[in-house]
Amino acid sequence: MRAFLLGQSGNAAERREEATPTGEPQHQIHTSVWKPKLLREKLQRGIDGGGDAVVVTEDGMVSYDGFRSGLQAMGISCDDEDEFRAFIGQVDDDESGGITYEEFLYAIQEIKLAQLFSQDFVKALEKEYARVHGNNAPVARLGSIEYSPDRIRSAYPIEGVEKFMYSKRPNWASVRWINVEGTDPLMMRRLAVRYRLHPLAVEDTLDADLERPKYEHYDEHSSLILQTVHARDLEKTLEYQSMYRASLYVRDNQVSPFENMSKAELETRLDELAMGRVMTPPEQLSLYIMDNVVISVQESPSTMWPTLKQRLDTSYSKVRQNGTAFLVYSIVDVCVDELSPIAHTYGAKVAMLSRLLRHDPRCFDVDRLAKCSKEIKGLKLLCKPLREMITQLMDSDDFEGETLRYFRDVQDHVTVIDETCDRLLDRCRSLVDDFHNARHAQQSEVNYTLTLVATVFLPAQFLTGLYGMNFVNMPELQYENGYMIWWGVTATIASGTISYFKFYKKWL
């Protein structure tokens, strides 16, 4: 059938060609390939555009001739009778003698999908991508897992994308999960045609602008958008998470892991956790949820696929025993689970900054606290919208029963992370206050020392000024031991002043 649609075995389904702005031929039908809009209203206009030849019977069926007229009204010519009959045989699989609305929808869907795989179209699109993006043209990798309680089949990456797109979910599989790594517009359009994705949902994926998480319900599917972050070095992040947890619950005969760290070790570890080295920038994760199919689209590869693959490989796991709703919960749960080690790593960073401040307040760089606070605030900004989105999921009709209990657990987890961020921000503010207090104390100590020194030498300054005056008759200047007497008087006054401060005023 695909060969027929692509015109490789005849000309029964020739598409019109127009010149694109770049001069390349672009196959077109009435609905745009660049922005798939397989909406029922659009197809209904195609049927209505067929004129009197398109007559819908009481059973909601269209005759073969009416079907041909409807295709022609949408810009698809079917001149060869034999190949049109072959096409009819593919569309009217129940041999009812007419075309139902769903069969008509399926036919247009197949034609558009074949067009998206045609070599001319793909080459023209690749040239357009090269012109716009240069060597950074978008590339997507496709993976799939089909599973049931007693059987599972996975493929990653999928090499035969065209064959996979035309394939159907096996009868034995209760769920098909399709994961896309990378936002390739061509791949998204193929998926949009194959699974009748709403154009607004596809646009949200292709034009990711890190908007708030949201959940939308459409006629054919539901759409879920999340903002996710990942640890730069998961192994190192888990190590710091363990250290931070150990520092929170120290027994009487133990000390915090950070207490025995030298200044050099603290500096080295803090350099490892410098700004931008703990977590990645936020990325968008889009989910399309259908009865038995879930499509996830990530901007870049992450740990989500291997983590969920490990869960799915366990035949008795909850995700294997349930449908798409529990798979959606599992995806959200994996995304939230990645936040906790990151938050605890920031906790370890704050603890090490606190220890470094106690080591030497004079050389402490308070700008480190400002940068750390900025990163923690960035993590916190993800929590509140995510919690609100989970509430929206729980209030929808798409999730019910035991799945709601699991979503509440995820919501509680997000709340804990949010509260952890609040505590860390409070600790950062407290450390800033401690730094300023230490600086003020240091300044006060310096002023105190200078004042004591000035007070001790004040009598000497007085005597120096007195005997430095140019009076003619100053008997003391003629004494044989006048110099020693001056030092003796000065030392006596200084010793008396120091003794007064030390023993009477207790200032020393």
Structure description:
With 508 residues, this protein is α+β, with helices and mostly antiparallel strands. The protein has helices at 2-5, 40-48, 64-73, 81-91, 101-117, 119-133, 161-166, 185-195, 199-206, 234-248, 263-272, 304-312, 318-321, 324-337, 339-359, 367-395, 402-467, 482-504, and strands spanning 14-19, 25-28, 61-62, 76-77, 99-100, 141-148, 151-155, 175-181, 214-217, 222-228, 283-289, 293-298. A hairpin with a 2-residue loop joins strand 6 (141-148) and strand 7. The longest helix has 66 residues, at 402-467.
List the helices and strands and how they pair.
Blueprint: H1 2-5, E1 14-19, E2 25-28, H2 40-48, E3 61-62, H3 64-73, E4 76-77, H4 81-91, E5 99-100, H5 101-117, H6 119-133, E6 141-148, E7 151-155, H7 161-166, E8 175-181, H8 185-195, H9 199-206, E9 214-217, E10 222-228, H10 234-248, H11 263-272, E11 283-289, E12 293-298, H12 304-312, H13 318-321, H14 324-337, H15 339-359, H16 367-395, H17 402-467, H18 482-504
Parallel strand pairs: 8-12
Antiparallel strand pairs: 1-2, 1-4, 3-5, 6-7, 6-8, 9-10, 10-11, 11-12
Helix pairs in contact: 5-8, 10-15, 11-15, 14-17, 15-16, 15-17, 16-17, 17-18
Transmembrane segments: 446-464, 484-503
InterPro entries: CorA_cytoplasmic_dom, CorA_TM1_TM2, EF-hand-dom_pair, EF_hand_dom, MgTranspt_CorA/ZnTranspt_ZntB
Subcellular location: Cell membrane
